[in-house]
Amino acid sequence: MPASRRPRRWPWVLSVLGVLLVIAGWWIDRQLEPNRLTATVLREAGESLQLNLRFEGQPDYALKPEPRLLIPNLSVSGADGVVFLSAKRAEISLPWSTLTGDEPVITRIELDQPVLALPGLRRWLATRPEAPFELPTLNKGLAVSDGTVTDDGYAINKLDLDLPRLKTGEPASVEAQGRFAQGETTVDFQLELGAETPGLASDFTVQGSGQLLQQPEPLNFQLRSNGRYISDDAGFSVDARELKFDGASPLPNIAGKGKLAVSEQTRLDFDGLLLEWPKTWPALPEPLATNSKNLPVRISYAGKPDFSDPVSLLVTREPTTLQASLRVGDLQQWLAATDGSPLPPINGTLSTPSLEFDGVKLLGVEVEISDGNASAAPP
Known about the structure:
Radius of gyration: 30 Å
Oligomer: single chain
Order of helices and strands: HHHEEEEHEEEHEEEEEEEEEEEEEHEE
Largest sheet: 20 strands, mixed
Shape: elongated
């Protein structure tokens, strides 16, 4: 008799299993429901980083070929509540190994119309505990579309960026284009940058082109450089072992080497050659006019990061020497003017054994150059 009753238990067992499967499916569906899943992931990430990460709209996710989260209208703020990063759309892909506790690796990040405010980012970084710098691993890189970066005094707009791969110990390359704006200066640019050992210090290469947007027409330029950069507690510095800039007149054509250091004060030093005298610059007197190619030139600056302080210039063609100072803003206004002074807005001294004007030869000449429209440099 007991044996005859045993088969009747199977319908009950199957029913219980069915109910358990339904409950499990409901629980998994609730946990993986896009809004709930996205909120959970952002909350856990925010707690670990001391950030407030939010979104607006309907998120989505996919699990094949690997987990991928699509977040609409993402915003990121620090403890002060001020948003310093936002994006109309963010897509983040992770390998399964990262989710199971292996090495923290991100497959790819894509950001549409992101806006990054560097002052807010710096405020958040200042609240983080000190720790050794670790370069994130992006197996399939980073893509930015129509981005914006803002800082005190300047902005980069219309930024498109493509970083195919990033990993410690491997070279990295970036293609970027956008528009740089600072005060009255607006420059469209396209750049290809390479880092031998990406991180806080590396040898680098850069080549690019662009336009200085001004009236009556934009001025084209090309840039090529290589050297080494360092980012540390003192700031950011670049040692360009080779620097070549080719610009449409009145922009100069120069080649040489230079150093740039950016911290509380910006310092710039360039030592090289003015390859040729720009056609739209004021004509040189003799004998300089017939010997104006490859003029040795030194440019130096120490002042505010917006380059509003005077720039020093030293041009030599032994035994002739020109020592001068100018302000970038005054020079830009002079370049854009169509009916202004024929002399550039500089203050300086020209010393030469002889000068010739209209057939008149002067010996032992020292000339002080001053444009009344130029902002005076400090003594």
